[in-house]
Amino acid sequence: MPDAVTAEFTAASPEQAKIVIGPATAPTTEAVATSQVVLGMPRELARAIGWPKALTPATTQNLLNRDVTWKSLGHPDWGTFRITSADPTKSLVGAVGFGALTTLANGGKFLTKAPNYANPTKADYAVVHWEQRIETVTDTQDAADAAMDVDTVAKFVKSTSAVVTTERAVIAHNQAFRAIPSSPSRSWTAQRASRLS
Fold this sequence. Notes:
Elements: E1 4-8, H1 14-17, E2 18-21, E3 33-42, H2 43-48, H3 57-64, E4 83-86, H4 92-105, H5 122-133, E5 134-138, H6 141-145, H7 153-159, E6 162-166, H8 167-178, E7 188-192
Parallel strand pairs: 1-7, 4-5, 4-6
Antiparallel strand pairs: 1-3, 2-3, 3-6
């Protein structure tokens, strides 16, 4: 993928958004490794929605509710805003990403009740629309990450606008593509999401 950026998902604190990997039977809570769950997208798409500023609940709601579209940002060729994610019932990364995006859609607050369908707020609409914007759900994280393995923005936006993945996968992707001398730079950087309340 060409130059790209990620938007880190956070929960109430950065520590809550990390994925901790360790032995299943470990008697200690010491982490073996962690990797942030991120929303990966080409740099051009990220700049269009405000990068390098943090991904905010307002930006998330505007994208999910289609109050802001790629077309309104001057890029009708990018289609509609869509997200690729591993199935949250089968993947820890998918589950963390789903929870973080649901929280951002809900105005940065943890979802504690169903949306108000009788008198919906912008947050209620965004929570409902969030599930509709996941247009590609894969069985594995590797399959979701494969959406990043294209060489142009045009190819990327044919299938998705962003991928729920890990910072580690983004780094590995960058290293693999930089190793190909004939390929253009496909650098990814981390963008921090605003802290959620």
